[in-house]
């Protein structure tokens, strides 16, 4: 019988093949493991960012609730055009009242109508009813001519319409505790006042009523003071650029503002006396050119602040984005806050 014996060369060759195969398998496994770790790290970072933003936004919501616990909501920042307002006018807009309007910002003329227009203004004339330094056709609207009398909102304000059975064509609809509700305005701000002691102490009582106003640096507690929360855009999330359908509507055509809620206090006698501070993270979403619009593709508007005067209830909705670079994720944080004090009329102030 002939025996075959493996030479050292044959044994060595086989070992080399095994080694190459083993190294290749090890490289594949190692590469896969690294990829999984990197993917896990990206997911972990995104989750942490989203959680951090959500926590900060929740803290902001608590602060909002505490701030408004004893506040009184004026029939906030709503007036009428006192004079005709042609489309070419950029100097001034005259209203019947500017009570509750911040010293600078934007207004909506004819909210809910076919002639709705947003106008930005830079100054508010002290003690008068004039907005100056105008930018017409603001927020993607068109400059139009308006006659005397149309309703004018501070653009931040949004409230339930009185006649829910007969909305105007431009009125929006929100879902309030499972009930469809028509509202008017953008809903990215809220105007209010708090109890103050104009003498500078702790006595906020005015006989059987309260002194209403705000505290302003350089002035102190004053009944001439007003306050508001408002939305300020900071950056933009463009679905087409980011290649991500953020609101899940099966397209990449939406553009969102990412901004911040801020608080402003000012004096109606001297609007140059004011305080303006950040109130939360720069992570709050609104659809560009459609503030107060549908953010989650459920068919209903999502204003940040929606005021129900009849129930003295303010619905606060915060839709925040956790990460705009890796796995962008949105979260909804909301609450219903009751302002126990009755709204004030213009005549009472």
Task: Give a short summary of the structure.
With 349 residues, the chain is an alpha+beta fold.
Structure overview:
The N terminus and C terminus are likely disordered. A hairpin with a 2-residue loop joins strand 8 and strand 9. Helix content is 19%, strand content 35%. With 349 residues, it is of the alpha+beta class. The chain has 2 helices and 22 strands. It has a 6-stranded antiparallel sheet, with no helix packed on it. Strands 10, 16, 17, 18 and 19 form a 5-stranded antiparallel sheet that branches.
Evaluate the radius of gyration. Answer: 29 Å
Write down how many β-strands occur, each being a DSSP E stretch of 2 or more residues. Answer: 22
Order of helices and strands: HEEEEEEEEEEEEEEEEHEEEEEE
Structural class: alpha+beta
Note the beta-strand portion.
35-45%
Termini, distance in Å? 120 Å
